[in-house]
Design brief:
With 201 residues, the chain is of the alpha/beta class. The chain has one domain (7-191): Gamma-glutamyl cyclotransferase-like (Hypothetical upf0131 protein ytfp, Roll). Helices cover 19% and strands 33% of the residues. The protein contains four helices and twelve strands. The relative contact order is 0.27.
């Protein structure tokens, strides 16, 4: 608690699907206020997370029924020389951070408070800002064999940035490194997805 009994404000910097208020609301269990566009210095946004499609909580199949071995996702990597990726600030409570930890099971939460600059100044600044970075065991600097990018996930992310504001989608594309794998239309064929984790990508 801060002086006077006022709770310290906490936020998460979303740089992928969390930019979508609807996606964030599905995890937090509440409506999410309009998110605040922001930039994250000192990091690059990359498609270097790989999820085991055969063993993870959701399995996708290609239109021909075959199962790709891995599905790639977005993460951030330390890189002081990179153009700062854009994203959104979402205010959260400590309990909501724990819900996000459950959703982001292949990531660990890191503090990025001093590295985030919001497009609009807050009336009362955040005491701490966090982001999620891939865990080492799921980090693939080069795509593993038979890895794909699920098209519905890519569309969800791009739609979120298009809704974030003018020029945000173009900035997302410019500050995201190339994916390097096949983009595939795939359908969910096995579902053991915990509550709060979007189910269609």
């Amino acid at each position: 608690m801060e002086a006077g009994g006022v709770s310290a404000r906490l936020a998460v910097f979303g740089y992928g699907s969390l930019v979508s208020p609807a996606s964030a609301a599905q995890t937090l269990g509440r409506a999410v206020d309009p998110v605040v566009p922001a930039r994250l210095t000192g990091f690059a946004r990359c498609w270097t997370l790989a999820r085991d499609n055969l063993r993870s909580e959701k399995t996708f199949a290609r239109p021909d029924g075959s199962l790709p071995r891995f599905c790639v996702g977005l993460t951030i990597e330390a890189d002081p020389s990179a153009e700062p990726p854009n994203g959104a600030l979402i205010e959260v409570t400590e309990a909501e951070l724990e819900r996000l930890d459950l959703r982001e099971i292949r990531y660990h939460r890191i503090a990025v408070t001093g590295a985030v600059a919001a497009d609009r100044p807050a009336a009362r600044p955040f005491a701490a800002v966090f982001a999620y970075r891939v865990r080492p065991e799921h980090h693939y600097p080069d795509p593993p064999e038979d890895a794909v990018l699920i098209a519905s996930y890519a569309r969800a992310v791009e739609s979120a940035f298009a809704d974030l504001g003018p020029g945000q989608l173009e900035l997302f594309r410019r500050t995201t490194r190339p994916v390097g794998v096949e983009l595939t239309e795939a359908s969910l064929v096995r579902d053991r997805i915990p509550a709060g984790n979007p189910r269609d990508w």
